[in-house]
Amino acid sequence: MTSTAPAATTPEDLLRGVGLRVTAARIAALRAVGDQQHATADDVLSSVRDELGTVSVQAVYDVLHALTDAHLLRRIEPAGHPARYERRTGDNHHHVVCRVCGTIGDVDCTVGHAPCLTPNDDHGFVIETAEVTYWGLCPGCSA
């Protein structure tokens, strides 16, 4: 998966670069996910409300959907956990998840280029990305 966003320094530039209208909610959501990598929708909602005041739950979900569709955010869904959003979109990295507290960390792809895993039989699919989730205990929970 390759980000379609150009190199930009501000949320406004990022939004314009992918043809999205610049809105306060989109800017606040980009900031929220930038500040808290692997944020849940509830995390983003709380941050956006802290920044803007009143905003509906549906508005935040609409913003997250638009930003994900535009490849400004990546949505990950670890089994048994709520969806999470991250700003790291331009590569094929994987994740490590703590089974106890749910902490998530990024794991760089260790073999080749995206996708870094090649199936024995692709069943005719054009493979765009491969996802690996490592499960274990974070340092805090294993102590």
Automatic annotation (TrEMBL):
Keyword Cell wall biogenesis/degradation applies: no
Key words, A-Z: Cytoplasm, DNA-binding, Iron, Metal-binding, Repressor, Transcription, Transcription regulation, Zinc
Leader peptide range in chain numbering: none
Family matches, as Pfam families: FUR
SUPFAM superfamilies according to UniProt: Winged helix' DNA-binding domain (SSF46785)
Subcellular location: Cytoplasm
Main localization, broad class: cytoplasm
Family of this protein: Belongs to the Fur family.
Record protein name field: Fur family transcriptional regulator FurA3
The organism's taxonomic lineage, starting at the top: Bacteria, Bacillati, Actinomycetota, Actinomycetes, Micrococcales
Gene name of the record: furA3
